[in-house]
């Protein structure tokens, strides 16, 4: 299997709280932090309490049942883990740009969509980024996530090409 400069894995899980808790563990010598989020107020805070953050992310999911009359299904938390396998260090501006490209390409937050999904991008290691979102949009509808893993990998490949990143070796 070929080695990709930016390894991108997409999966879904049941618990936003558990996922954020797991992701908040970091490599030695690197303090995890919130890079950016759907809400500018969140990124302006010095510290973020993970259970509170999970609750904010899950609000559209909690509001869906009263609107639709249906209980939300399982695995409503979307997670995209991106790891840089190159020798080139990406700064926060690069990771921010990549986050925006992945969110747009996958349908989590298409450009100029005020009712899109809630999401956060967390840095928990020097060579990685984790994007966590709920798949229920703020307007209560399901996000259109057909082929989301493919589109996330394509966004990473485009970023790799645009920034001249190569596989080490």
Attribute tags:
globular, single chain, alpha+beta, BirA Bifunctional Protein, domain 2, 169 residues, 5-stranded antiparallel beta sheet, 24% strand
CATH architecture: 2-Layer Sandwich
Low-confidence stretches: none
Q: Structural class of the secondary structure composition?
A: alpha+beta
**How much beta, percentage-wise?**
15-25%
Rg calculated over all Cα atoms: 16 Å
Question: What is the helix tally?
Answer: 5
Strands of the widest sheet, in order across it, are 1-3-5-4-2
The profile of the biggest β sheet is: 5 strands, antiparallel
- CATH fold-type name: BirA Bifunctional Protein, domain 2
Fraction in helix: 25-40%
Q: SSE order in H/E notation?
A: EHEHHEHEEH
The total of beta strands comes to 5
> How far apart are the termini?
15 Å
pLDDT average, as an integer?
87
* Total domains: 1
Shape: globular
CATH class: Alpha Beta
Word description of this protein:
With 169 residues, this protein is α+β, with helices and mostly antiparallel strands. The protein has a single domain, classed as BirA Bifunctional Protein, domain 2, CATH 3.30.930.30. It contains five helices and five strands; from the N terminus they run E-H-E-H-H-E-H-E-E-H. The chain has helices at 16-23, 40-43, 50-68, 92-106, 148-162; strands at 6-13, 33-37, 77-84, 117-125, 128-137. Strands 1-3-5-4-2 form a five-stranded antiparallel beta sheet, sandwiched between helices. A hairpin with a 2-residue loop joins strand 4 (117-125) and strand 5. The longest helix has 19 residues, at 50-68. The protein is globular and about 50 Å long. It starts with 5 loop residues before the first strand and ends in a 7-residue tail after the last helix. The model has no long low-confidence stretch (mean pLDDT 87).
């Amino acid at each position: 299997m070929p080695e990709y400069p930016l390894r991108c894995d997409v999966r879904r899980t049941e618990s936003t709280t558990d996922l954020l808790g797991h992701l908040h563990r970091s490599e030695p010598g690197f303090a995890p932090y919130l890079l950016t989020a759907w809400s500018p107020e969140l990124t302006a805070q010095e510290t973020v309490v993970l259970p509170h953050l999970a609750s904010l992310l899950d609000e559209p999911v909690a509001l869906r049942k009263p609107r639709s009359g249906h209980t939300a299904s399982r695995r409503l938390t979307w997670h995209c883990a991106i790891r840089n396998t190159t020798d080139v260090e990406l700064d926060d501006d690069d990771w921010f740009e990549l986050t925006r490209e992945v969110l747009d390409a996958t349908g989590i937050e298409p450009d100029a969509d005020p009712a899109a999904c809630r999401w956060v991008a967390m840095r928990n290691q020097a060579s990685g980024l984790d994007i966590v979102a709920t798949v229920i949009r703020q307007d209560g509808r399901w996000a259109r996530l057909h082929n989301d893993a493919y589109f996330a990998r394509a966004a990473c490949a485009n970023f790799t090409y645009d920034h001249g990143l190569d596989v080490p070796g």
